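re: ur question from yesterday

yeah so i grabbed the chain u mentioned. its 166 aa long if i counted rite. heres the sequnce exactly as i have it in my notes:
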Amino acid sequence: MSFYDDLKFGQDSERLLVEKYQFLEHTTGRKSDFMIKGTNLHIELKTDSYDMHKYGNIIIERYGSDEKDGGPFSALKNGCKYFIYMFVKNDKIFVFETVRLVARIKKLVKKHDLKLHEKWNPGYITRYYKVPINMLEDLDVTMAKLKRDYEVAAAKVKKKAIKHGK
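ran it thru and got these structure tokens back, copy pasting raw so excuse formatting
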């Protein structure tokens, strides 16, 4: 896919996620893709179109253009609590706590000498790791965790409203 095809695919995937999980809301700006409604918990989404079973890897962007952090490394700097990785073809979603995901990737890079790969787009290069899914799947907190975060926030709002007689 071209850069613009990738961009449209990502935007379409974001719409699908918000439709399916209505406790998420789009954010504006570049800090994150979503927030959990009623919270200040930011989420970054990465989607892929390939079959996860065919390759068995999660593509983790390390650097974007100008060697700026990418993927979960950028999400961590931007204060994202969660990093979602979605395989659209398989209807599979992994939800990672960003801090734990970045720590695991750093550990795997050292321990298994993971190599950086490059994808060239017009005017842009992405450098990434191919990380075997089985090395990350134990970190998956699932969408149920995000829903619980929303429910806790909603309960606090309700309790506060009752306390103030609203």
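noticed a couple things. The radius of gyration is 17 Å. also Helices lie at 3-20, 52-55, 71-77, 98-112, 142-163.
anyway ttyl
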